[in-house]
Amino acid sequence: MPIFTHPDLAPITRHARAMYSSRLLIAAVHHLHAFEQLAAGPLAPSDLQARLGLRERPAMVLFPALCAMEMWAYDASGKLQLTALGQHLTQKARPTLTEYLGLEKNDAGVIEMAEWLLNDGPQLSGVSGTAYVKEGTGPSPMDEPTTARALTLALAGRAECLAPIVANKLPKHNGHLLDVAGGTGYFSYEWLLVNPQATATVFDRPAVLAVAAELLEKFCQSGRPGVAGVRERVKFQPGDMLTDPLPSTDILLAASLFHDWPTYTCQQLARRFAAALRPEGELWIHDAFLNDELDGPLAVTDYSAQLFWVTKGRAYSRREYRGWLREAGLIPSMESFATQMDYGLIWAKNSSKG
Ligand SMILES: C[S@@+](CC[C@H](N)C(=O)[O-])C[C@H]1O[C@@H](n2cnc3c(N)ncnc32)[C@H](O)[C@@H]1O
């Protein structure tokens, strides 16, 4: 059976996530009054954040998004200012579309977005925990079999689409791949197919790995050349990546992982992952990246708002990732590869030679 051939599916996810731009824009104008704050002149991002009463995460979701929408821009001194377009969303401008946008200000999604921005999440935290996140002793949907299955299978199509591309960009190796928070495991299965001597560990929550094991069976029955030999080279390791020992590895893959977590947890994870690398080891990150200037691209600022809505994280820039990787003692490459669906790969190598 041949591997799927398909166009880049990015237009589908872009259209699906576009509603987050609308919510952010209308909430910023009508609930946070953020455009009025800038009407008097440019402000340093930290000053604007303080005036709006926002924590770091919502500010880093909202400000890049409004820049990507070309409503705001950075001036030469790094302050945020209204663009010629954005001026028309202030009360004093003529013409102004402020009231026209106000027709949607009571939309449930807009109101909820405003609440999330102001609280850095929902006012009442959910009793069953946050999607795709297991932290501490609190409940997690990833530990409840029904929700773990639904959330894992929801990502299966994306992983099936991206994993063959990622597998071909990762290093060819006869050693070991650790697929942390590996979900379906597809990134490991595809990489093992192109590395016939290698082994892999898919590390995740037990209820997620039960689904991954079923998907491995299906993968091995697909009839593609070489798939029969994949099953025996995969190990499933249940655990908590934040606290449990991680197996040592030549390549560590963190796919769509950091973006579920706040900055301080990303720094902690980078240190844990660096410590799991063998002397010549490499840490690879597959994710969607903000521009280093934190002003787009629009597809990623929409995605960042979606992540803000459902997880504890947001999208980060390559510069932010490379900072954490350096702090963790790794040497980040300045290379970056695009994959598909607005994702890309960056990587860093272990500085220790053993
Ligand atoms: C967004 S999914 C990414 C899955 C996969 N890497 C992919 O790209 O399809 C995040 C994964 O992190 C896992 N996860 C969350 N918290 C975890 C923890 N503390 N320890 C291990 N895995 C965790 C979830 O169960 C989930 O499978």
From TrEMBL:
Residue ranges of every copy of the O-methyltransferase C-terminal domain listed in the record: 176-329
Keywords for the protein's UniProt record, in alphabetical order: Methyltransferase, S-adenosyl-L-methionine, Transferase
UniProt-listed CDD domains: AdoMet_MTases
GO molecular function: O-methyltransferase activity
Keyword flag Transferase: yes
Superkingdom: Bacteria
GO biological process: methylation
Record carries keyword Lyase: no
SUPFAM superfamilies: S-adenosyl-L-methionine-dependent methyltransferases
PANTHER family registered for this protein in UniProt: O-METHYLTRANSFERASE CICE (PTHR43712:SF2), PUTATIVE (AFU_ORTHOLOGUE AFUA_4G14580)-RELATED (PTHR43712)
Record-given protein name: Methyltransferase
